Amino acid sequence: YYGAWLELSSSVNYGFITLYSLNKYFARTLAVISEMIKAPTFPAKELSVVADTNKQQFLVNSTRVEMIARKQLNTALFGPEHPFGRYAVAGDYDRITPEVLRSFYRKYYHSGNCSVYISGKVTSEIIRCIEDNLGSGQWGEVTEKAKTTLVPPVTTKEKRIFIEREDALQSSLKMGCFVMDRHHPDFLKARVMVTLFGGYFGSRLMSNIREDKGYTYGIGAGIVSYPGTGILTVSTEAANEYVNSIITEVYREMDKLCNDLVPQEELEMVKNYMLGDLCRSYEGPFSLSDAWIYIETAGLDERFFIRSLDAIRGITREEIRILAQKYFCKENLIEVIAGKKV
Description:
The chain is α+β, with helices and mostly antiparallel strands. The chain has two domains: 5-135, Cytochrome Bc1 Complex, Chain A, domain 1 (2-Layer Sandwich), CATH 3.30.830.10; 160-339, CATH 3.30.830.10. It has twelve helices and seven strands. The chain has helices at residues 26-38, 44-61, 65-78, 98-108, 124-135, 187-198, 204-212, 243-259, 264-280, 285-297, 304-314, 317-327; strands spanning 5-10, 15-20, 160-164, 171-179, 219-226, 229-238, 334-339. The strands form two sheets. Strands 3-7-4-6-5 form a five-stranded mixed β-sheet, sandwiched between helices. It has a two-stranded antiparallel sheet with strand order 1-2. Helix 8 (243-259) packs across helix 12 (317-327) and helix 9 (264-280) packs antiparallel against helix 11 (304-314).
């Protein structure tokens, strides 16, 4: 009854616990969170309910062509034995026991492997409360932070992969290849180039494939970052008979960016969009803390957002073309289609 909100989430290699609380109840809500983090019980009965719920959701998602295509693209790029290319099966949910969770908890959940971010109306009382609950001494089985070992990918030699779903009303198309990671000097300006190509509603892909051709309700492109690498992706869902035409148009738009200079007016529109999007990352206390969490979890330095601003403002038409020529390698793009055969 404290009007608080709790969010639990995880990424490829981080777990997140987020509490939104009124200041006047913060001490009481944090005490509950502290107990949950420091002394979890993993009761078998409740775990079976949670595992079964997640299993049922997994089974539902496994029938969606978008999910099928996304998983298959990662498996094709990284290899089926790679941590980023290997996925759960339904039976895995039956093997999650309280002891499995306790073992995972002992390895990763301790004061030596935890960072706390606080934003909002932060008072000295709030800081003291955090110190009392989480910072007054070591908790958990404190060890050194687990080191991440990067596994080399084993990419398939197949250019096109088709997964048939006879009952599919639409097909999902995913195209992807390896590019740079977030630490590469080209990354920030390459994001501008990819945004112009397919990263917002006014992009080249949307204007051509949605607005002009009417093949799909939406298509997008972006750089998905993983530890040590990044993937250029193009993603859409469309009627089965339009998929080949969409692939042709994607490659045509790539060729245009490789061969022709972008009109200055179009580049300015993309810059304004990205600058506005960057401003939204700093407009409130919660988005601001998210921005700094991103900095830490990605292993970036505190000037990353300043460099992002400079890259957006400073990129030129000539640099867009050079980056397209460098990273739009059609031969490296793997095409994954999940849907019904036409």
